[in-house]
Write a structure and sequence with these properties.
single chain; 245 residues; Metallo-beta-lactamase, Chain A; seven-stranded mixed sheet; 8 helices; 14 strands; binds zinc ion
Length: 245
């Protein structure tokens, strides 16, 4: 399985200024291709890296916040060749379809299927099977994901008991939005990330989805410092970075 970071920016200020790209993650395994959380400019990042989106098999949205989902409509159009090819699947929480809908109505019949994600359920797309975690602690319906024991994707959430175990995998991607924990802001801070890594003990932890305070503190320096202190390899994702899992 190959994982590519189509962006590493998280939260509104980083995204508004495009200090880093906000295209989410891209997974390739065998003939299967999945776009995860296509935020603002995802379409540009995929085009820049010459990904043929007409071969995309699925789009997965962890939650309806703009930095995770903004380009979903254009990605659906690309995946279905403007709706002329009835193909591919969209996976998203129900509130992305119902409340203040994110996915335009006219596009909903373009993919083969629109799947409403449910907690702790497994889904298979071609060669890839992924499982949702219980609902995260976040403002809107949000899920984290595990791709077997290979990859755990810790999307936006406040820290909660069990978060480490639920995403535990060989490689764990962690959304690090805040430097300092702040009550009332349901996002992971640096101490939360450290706690998750210590509890889950992955072979490799990768930080991404940086908020402004994290960006200013230089994520790669934070990663080096965590590696030293925890003894687990921690990397800071960079735009366009790919790793084989
Ligand atoms: Zn969010």
């Amino acid at each position: 399985m190959k994982l590519t970071f189509m962006g590493t920016a998280g939260a509104r200020f980083m995204v508004a200024k495009q200090l880093a790209a906000s295209g989410g993650l891209y997974i390739e395994e065998g003939n299967t291709r999945i776009s995860l959380d296509p935020g603002p400019g995802a379409i540009v990042q995929y085009a820049k890296r010459k990904v043929d989106l007409t071969k995309l098999d699925a789009i997965v949205i962890s939650h309806r916040h703009l930095d995770h989902s903004n380009d979903v409509n254009v990605m659906i159009e690309a995946m279905t060749e403007g709706g002329f090819q009835h193909r591919g699947r969209l996976f998203c929480p129900s509130d992305a379809l119902d409340v203040d809908p994110l996915v335009l109505n006219y596009l909903r019949r373009f993919p083969q299927e629109v799947v409403r994600l449910e907690p702790q359920k497994s889904y298979t797309v071609g060669d890839v099977t992924f499982t949702t975690t219980p609902r995260h602690v976040h403002q809107v319906e949000t899920y984290g994901f595990r791709f077997g024991s290979r990859l755990g994707w810790v999307t936006d959430s406040a820290y909660y008991e069990g978060i480490a175990e639920q995403h535990k995998a060989d490689v764990m991607v962690i959304h690090l939005v805040l430097m300092d924990c702040r009550t009332g802001l349901p996002h992971l801070c640096l101490d939360d990330a450290e706690r998750i890594i210590r509890e889950a003990k992955p072979r490799l932890a990768i930080l991404t989805h940086y908020g402004m305070t994290v960006w200013r503190a230089h994520p790669w320096e934070l990663a080096a410092d965590l590696t030293q202190r925890i003894g687990t390899e921690v990397k800071a994702a960079r735009d366009g970075m790919s790793i084989e899992l």
